[in-house]
Amino acid sequence: MKRRHDRVLKAEKANELVNNASVSIEEAIAAVSAIGGTIYDIKLRNVDGRVVWRVKLVRVAERVKVYVDAKVGDIIEAKAEATAIEVEPARRMSAPEL
Fold it and tell me: Which domain holds residue 38?
């Protein structure tokens, strides 16, 4: 019974977020298109009492989180985080035999 109650609460919170967002997911994607990269996650969130689209992008050697105001469509914040790039260690070359 508790699981059902938790699901109902989660659905009610999601419904409230959607009702308070006047910017669609397509508009949020358009807002972050100037940053470039490939979107791999986008969610509607409540951050500090403000409804925002949190868009996660991946670009060359970095991941970027972009927060878009879900009421007006402006980018609030963009945070870049470098990703580890695996590089093969250099191989030692031996001197040619004479």
Answer: 2-82
Q: Determine the Cα–Cα distance for residues 38 and 98; give it in Å rounded to an integer.
A: 53
Nearest-angstrom CA–CA distance, 8 and 2: 10
- Identify the CATH number of the domain in which residue 13 sits: 3.10.450.40
User: Across 4-96, where does the E strand assignment appear?
Assistant: 38-47, 50-59, 62-69, 75-82
DSSP class of residue 3 equals H
Placement of tokens 């590089």 in the chain: 87
Token look-up 């060359």 returns 60
Looking at the domain assignment, is residue 74 inside a domain?
A: yes
The percent of the chain in helix, strand and coil, each rounded to the nearest 5, is: 30, 35, 35
**Number of domains present in the structure of the chain:** 1
Domain assignment present for residue 13? The answer is yes
pTM over 0.85: no
pLDDT in tens, 6-17: 898 888 888 888
